[in-house]
Design a protein that fits this description.
The strands form 3 sheets. The chain has a 6-stranded parallel sheet with strand order 5-4-1-6-7-8, with helices on both faces. Strands 9, 10, 11, 12 and 13 form a 5-stranded mixed sheet that branches. The chain contains 15 helices and 13 strands.
Length: 475
């Protein structure tokens, strides 16, 4: 069995990470009723003997003693990490796997990347190696961070570079939360574009998520509940925005519902690594099948259902609706409409009592309405995990390598240029040692090149399908 390590950086990264671990424990508790440490648990948790005090040896079989998350928590402010350590999940995190400072990065990518990156490099590398040593077969690093702040964008991408240097063979999945156009951090366009250059060069897969989309989804669910559209068939505790049934008993904060959506995305993404299924999908298969070109590794995600229906025996029509929803604009985790853009490839990760025949039928039903590149018309990757999320009979995560991500990048570039043309706020960055103005010009050039690659693909959309030329054999 393979293991994965989660590296959560900055305030957003740690808040989302906390929700992921909370919900993951709830999910395993629903399946693992005997309290046995099994392969499913070992994928993201160590079982540590703490009876003699401190961090004892790992226990690989038998009863659960003390579960420790395979995680590294990094933040240059203490607030969020301290809150986690005082909360119900405090025993899940190893105190040796925390790196904090007190002053923060001041919403400045250069402080996070150039200043704290160099200052904490050895400490970060040491803790990453320690985490890796506890794994039998380390398959993947998951980085969770935001793009708009200083620590998440700056130190988060610095850690990404370190992972490539220290563990070049281990896959690097990055969950990046992008700021909205009305973000309250004025320098967020600078931070995001500087971070994008690092993501372009060092990540294997990036799952971009926009705050605006999360906000819209949360509002949509609340409206449906309040106006009674969901009726009596919806179990409140099964909403993907809900924390009910988890370890948390404190009142929810404004961002908890949004963070729960991202946590559910990660739960579904890792389900095949944690549970059995008739068609399991390895995490490295996602990168292998969905990323045809190294820089075009941004995967648009959608999650459905956003709520579950009370009856477990799901009629076929309702199951089909789940597949349709996954391709609709309302369910995307960025502001995009994939059906009107070009697909390079698409993965469908289904959980619950769904048959392979249901999967194939829906792919055939949806294919005529989706535009795939001419050279990859059958670019589908599918996975079936038999264990559904808690409170659901089934769920679907769709990952699309689609040119619909381009408007997000164009909007980011436009907001960057508004500031950069006036050289506004540049002095805050340039006084940091190692930060030069060329960093900005190289970052915007990297983003422009990426947008141009998507433009070139879009230009082929709707063109005649051409079969690849065949080898001619001289007679």
């Amino acid at each position: 069995m393979t293991q994965s390590v989660v590296v959560q950086v900055g305030q957003c990264g740690n808040q989302v990470g906390c929700r992921f671990w909370d919900l993951a424990l709830r999910e395993h508790a629903a399946v693992n009723e005997k309290g046995i440490y099994d392969e499913a648990l070992s994928s993201f948790f160590r079982n540590v003997d703490t009876r003699s005090g401190g961090d004892g040896p790992d226990i690989y079989k038998g009863k659960i003693c003390s579960l420790k998350a395979r995680a590294l928590l990094i933040d240059m402010e203490e607030g969020v990490v301290n809150e986690i350590l005082q909360g119900p999940l405090r025993d899940v995190f190893d105190s040796k796997q925390l790196i904090t400072d007190v002053s923060g990065s001041g919403n400045n990518w250069a402080v996070g990347h150039k200043l704290y990156g160099y200052q904490y490099r050895e400490n970060i590398v040491e803790k990453l190696r320690l985490t890796a040593e506890h794994c039998d077969c380390l398959q993947c690093f998951f980085i969770i961070h935001s793009m708009g702040g200083g620590t998440g964008s700056g130190l988060g991408t610095y850690v990404l570079n370190l992972l490539e240097d220290e563990f070049p063979e281990v896959y690097r999945f990055v969950t990046s939360v992008y700021p909205s156009g009305e973000d309250d951090v004025i320098t967020s366009p600078y931070n995001s574009v500087l971070a994008m250059k690092e993501l372009n060069e060092h990540a294997d897969c990036v799952l971009p998520i926009e705050n605006e989309s999360l906000f819209d989804i949360v509002n949509k669910i609340h409206q449906m509940i309040n106006c009674g559209k969901l009726g009596s068939t919806v179990k409140q505790n099964s909403l993907v925005t809900s924390s009910a049934g988890s370890a948390k008993i404190v009142p929810e904060k404004p961002f908890d519902a949004m963070n729960n959506i991202v946590a559910n995305l990660l739960l579904n993404l890792t389900s095949s690594a944690r549970f059995e299924g008739s068609l399991n999908m390895d995490l490295n298969e996602i990168s292998m099948n969905l990323v045809p070109f190294p820089r075009l590794h941004y995967l648009v995600s959608s999650l459905t259902p956003l709520y579950t229906l009370a009856d477990v025996n799901v009629p076929s029509r309702r199951l089909d609706q789940m597949f349709s929803d996954a391709f609709s604009r309302d369910h995307q985790l960025i502001q995009a409409d994939p059906k009107h853009s070009l697909y390079l490839a698409c993965a469908l990760l289904v959980r619950g009592n769904v048959q392979v025949s249901d999967l194939r039928r829906n792919i055939e039903r949806l294919k005529p309405s989706l535009h795939f590149v001419s050279w990859n018309q059958e670019g589908w990757k599918t996975g079936l995990c038999s264990v559904p999320p808690v409170g659901h009979s089934h769920s679907l995560l769709a990952l699309a390598n689609n040119t619909c991500v381009k408007p997000t990048f164009i909007g980011l570039k436009d907001r960057f240029m508004k500031l950069y043309k006036k050289k506004a706020h540049l002095h805050h960055y340039l006084h940091i040692e190692g930060m030069e103005q060329s960093c900005f010009s190289e970052a915007i050039s990297s983003l422009s090149d990426l947008i141009e690659e998507y433009n070139e693909l879009d230009a082929t959309k709707g063109g005649p399908r051409t079969d690849p030329s065949r080898l001619k054999v001289a007679v």
